[in-house]
Amino acid sequence: MPKGIGKLRSLQTLTMFVVGQKNSGYGIRELELRNLLGGKLEIHDLEYVENKNDAEGANLKLKPNLYRLELNWSKDCDKDGKDLLEGLQPHINVKILSVKYYRGVSFPKWMMRSSSLPNMVEISLRHCNKCEHLPALGQLPSLKVLKVLEMKAVKALGREFYTDGTLSGAERVTPAFPSLRIFILVNLPNLEKWLEPESVSFSCLENLSIENCPKLTSLPTEFPSLQEIRLLNINSLIVEKLAERTLTSLTYLLIGGCPELKYLPRRLLQNNKVLRKLQVRKFPKFQAFRSNNEDPEPVSTSSLESLEIVGCPLLSDFPDIRGLNSLRSLAISDCENWDSLTVELQCSCTLEELIIGGFSEKLRSFPFPDVRQLVFLQRLLIKGWSMQTVIPEQLEHFTKLKELTISDFPDLVSLPNSLGNLESLQILEIKSCKVLMSLPSKEIMSRLRALKKLRIIDCPRLKDRCSKNTGDEWYKVAHILDLLYD
């Protein structure tokens, strides 16, 4: 930092202050009289603040124009810091607060009082690894976004999360988190319980993300406004409990990385009138969508627009999805056990995007839905596997296709001339085809009059042959305006 910031008496904007040694022109008291500061202020290296009095000397409570405050200790700091954080209470006008690498075991009272933070909209707590409990943020009336990241000591979200314990009687059942809309929990390896609040809470919560919390087995039962859920690398019990509930407002569900989960309820697809997007990713044991009915009818719903099943090596069954009349995007890839797809991929004709490939080595030919069903298809990604040495011949029928990606064909040597039938193609991407050497002929490439972008990624031989002016295939692509080789 420049020495003597405190002498700039009219300073209004200072986005970052790095604390140095006391009485050297770099101490935190340099901020004492800078009460005109506004906007965002990051304070770093707070371990150099010697005591609470010096922290209070920064006069953050007297800076009404600050709307965002970030309080950061160094990553390797081992000082407790609780008294310092107590003295760094911001002005009531602050709306966004971030605390990072704080080493205290608890948080100061001002973080829990509605009178101290009445206008607080967003709080982020990160790498506070000695804190065993989160502060009672449930009492903050304006809080809309809460992010809790990388906190190793937290084992439970209990009553202390909703109230600071000073309330009694009717006050104890005051709704908690009345304005919260986004709640993110990431990398809490020892979190086991998220207890039910004593009163109706989270009434406005729309977006819930839980990631890398493998011990968590319980959570509240009521989220009346929940629209989006992301569950990644967590205990399968959480997925099962949420799937059993009727979440009437849910429009987006992403689940992935649950090591023991084998089945998902079919009702996530069947007659779901609200869900718009469902993503299932990287389930090592996931096998199927299971129904209580032994002979289920085709899935029917009017709402699902996007369905993704990716990285599920044991997937062996998939429901008939012809009834998904609103489906616009379908992704089925990296499911190495899937060797019979013809029947299952009877798709709705509404598809605009299809991602498909990466299947069982037993599957010698590339499976495609009936091309007559894909009259509106505009974006296609085909992914090969070890048994695939040629591009699927059905590709030539997608004359309205605008974007095509050809990926992971390990033994593909050349692209077919039938590619020239894709007269509407605007973007062509070729990825991870290690031995690919040749594009279609110059005449065929010239027929792709709409082609604006060509991407050649991780295809070393083709990249060399298409090099500007020197490659043997350069004359085939020289007319394309946007070329990228990587």
TrEMBL record:
Gene3D superfamilies: Ribonuclease Inhibitor. It comes from the Eukaryota. Residues 28-151 form the R13L1/DRL21-like LRR repeat region domain. This is Uncharacterized protein. InterPro entries: At4g27190-like_LRR, LRR_dom_sf, LRR_R13L1-DRL21. Residues 339-459 form the Disease resistance protein At4g27190-like leucine-rich repeats domain.
